[in-house]
């Protein structure tokens, strides 16, 4: 039984005991649901730590198993075997704190540094040579894409459960959203709230795309034209 609340460990939020078949269910401060570790404060620190550890181990295996030092081949192996670990369900646990962001980014930063022909380049330069993006930027794109799916009904989630449209707004795109006030960080940094500013800054051409593939293409083009866009968020 996972009790949610900031005072769970102090047992001041009336953590009731539950029984099943006459047996009391044991209490826990964290649990795993569909591969995501979540704690009683709705934080994902342990999930991120576990995920990064597994990714580093798998990246090290690639280094030992491949004799070649061709950066294109090695990075393709990284994309296939390591990056999915770092991006699974990222819209659920996408971190806000810089320490967690750096921890995740360290996997790709360390692996690209290992590639001999790129070792003398800076991390942004290595990404340019490999024609890829930082993991942080990719998570932002995943969040915006999921928002597009929900808002336009391309998935089974109810839009009203996540977002409120600002129909009275005369500036910005046609699907501008209202940021909801919250006093707790787990709500402020949740999926339904953390990317509102980024979404509202997108152009009509992007948010009114006729399909998800077209949205992804236009979003990529928008980021390329506005290369300082992500630094604002």
Task: Offer a quick outline of the entry.
The protein has 233 residues and is mainly alpha-helical.
Give short descriptive properties of this protein.
2 domains; two-stranded antiparallel sheet; 12 helices
Helix and strand arrangement:
Layout: E1 19-20, E2 23-24, E3 30-33, E4 36-39, H1 45-65, H2 71-81, H3 83-87, H4 90-93, H5 98-114, H6 123-130, H7 135-151, H8 185-188, H9 191-194, H10 196-200, H11 204-207, H12 212-225
Antiparallel strand pairs: 1-2, 3-4
Helix pairs in contact: 1-2, 1-5, 7-12
Describe what this molecule looks like in 3D.
The chain is mainly alpha-helical and 233 residues long. The protein has two domains: 45-132, no CATH class; 138-232, no CATH class. The strands form two sheets. The chain has a two-stranded antiparallel ribbon with strand order 1-2. A two-stranded antiparallel sheet has the order 3-4. The model has no long low-confidence stretch (mean pLDDT 88). The two termini are 36 Å apart. Helix 1 (45-65) runs antiparallel to helix 2, helix 1 packs parallel to helix 5 and helix 7 (135-151) crosses helix 12. The chain has twelve helices and four strands. It has helices at 45-65, 71-81, 83-87, 90-93, 98-114, 123-130, 135-151, 185-188, 191-194, 196-200, 204-207, 212-225, and strands at 19-20, 23-24, 30-33, 36-39.
């Amino acid at each position: 039984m996972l009790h949610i609340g900031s005072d769970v460990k102090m047992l001041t939020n009336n953590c009731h005991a539950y029984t099943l078949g006459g047996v009391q269910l044991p209490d826990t401060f964290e649990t795993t649901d569909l591969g995501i570790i979540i704690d009683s404060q709705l934080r994902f620190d342990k999930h991120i730590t576990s995920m990064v550890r597994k990714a580093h181990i798998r990246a090290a295996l690639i280094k030992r198993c491949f004799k070649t030092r061709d950066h294109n081949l090695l990075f393709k192996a990284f994309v296939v075997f390591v990056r999915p670990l770092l991006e699974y369900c990222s819209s659920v646990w996408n971190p806000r704190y810089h320490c967690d962001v750096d921890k995740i980014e360290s996997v790709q930063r360390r692996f690209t540094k290992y590639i001999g022909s790129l070792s003398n380049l800076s991390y942004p330069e290595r990404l340019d040579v490999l024609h890829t993006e930082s993991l942080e930027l990719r998570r932002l794109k995943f969040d915006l894409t999921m928002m597009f799916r929900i808002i336009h009904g391309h998935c089974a989630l109810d839009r009203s459960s996540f977002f409120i449209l600002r129909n009275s707004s005369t500036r910005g795109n046609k699907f501008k959203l209202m940021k909801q006030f919250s006093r707790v960080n787990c709500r402020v940094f949740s999926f339904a709230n953390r990317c509102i500013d980024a979404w509202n800054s997108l152009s009509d051409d992007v948010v009114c795309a006729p399909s998800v593939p077209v949205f992804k293409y236009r979003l990529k083009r928008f980021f390329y034209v506005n290369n300082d866009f992500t630094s604002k968020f």
